[in-house]
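Subject: design request, 190 residues
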């Protein structure tokens, strides 16, 4: 769907398993875009590139974040895996020539979310959570809900993630708390 070099570079950078996950996220993102009236091509590109900075080596991740001038908050310093969102937006812009700020923002916030998310941000967040190879407990319910009530599916996914992180003794990213609270308030006004 996109130029061959994009696919080749992506697979080379993040490995075949992550690349295949990205293709699945791309497909689900397009389905959701069609259902909820978002631009399918934008959803496809954001879905494809959402993990473009998913680098395993902690040192390389931190080095790149430094080079791109990304300011790390305490939660990101504690769990460097979370850096791949904001770093991904920078990599997508500089290395994959993505200029669309809505796509870049969807990549940036795909793991932790943010307060008052756009439709595209919501779609990429939930597509990453429900793509067909995700097998964890509770995913079925979120998967079903995503096609019936997008906001409700996001709340459930965020609740699950918050519980999962607490269970593992980790730090919850504040964006996720803000995103969840905003969605809950929004829902109560529906
Ligand atoms: N909102 C959050 N706050 C803190 N940690 C989180 C949050 N969301 C995800 N994490 C943690 O960050 C890591 C990466 O998450 P994610 O990118 O969703 O994983 P995956 O590799 O399955 O795509 C996981 O270990 C997860 O526990």
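Subject: RE: design request

Done. Sequence follows.
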């Amino acid at each position: 769907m996109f130029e061959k070099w994009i696919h080749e570079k992506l697979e080379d950078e993040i490995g075949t398993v992550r690349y295949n996950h990205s293709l699945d996220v791309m497909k689900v993102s397009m389905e959701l875009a069609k259902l909820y009236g978002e631009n399918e091509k934008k959803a496809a590109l954001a879905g494809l590139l959402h993990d473009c900075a998913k680098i395993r080596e902690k040192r390389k991740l931190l080095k790149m974040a430094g080079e791109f001038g990304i300011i790390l908050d305490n939660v990101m310093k504690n769990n460097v895996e979370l850096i791949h969102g904001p770093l991904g937006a920078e990599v997508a812009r500089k290395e994959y020539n993505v200029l669309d700020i809505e796509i870049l923002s969807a990549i940036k916030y795909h793991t932790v979310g943010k307060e008052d998310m756009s439709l595209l941000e919501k779609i990429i967040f939930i597509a990453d959570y429900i793509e067909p190879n995700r097998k964890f407990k509770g995913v079925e319910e979120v998967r079903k809900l995503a096609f019936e009530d997008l906001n409700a599916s996001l709340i459930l996914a965020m609740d699950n993630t918050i519980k999962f992180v607490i269970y593992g003794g980790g730090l919850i990213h504040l964006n996720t708390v803000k995103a969840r609270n905003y969605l809950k308030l929004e829902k109560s006004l529906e």
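Residues 4-188 form a domain with the Hypothetical protein af1432 fold (CATH 1.10.3210.10).
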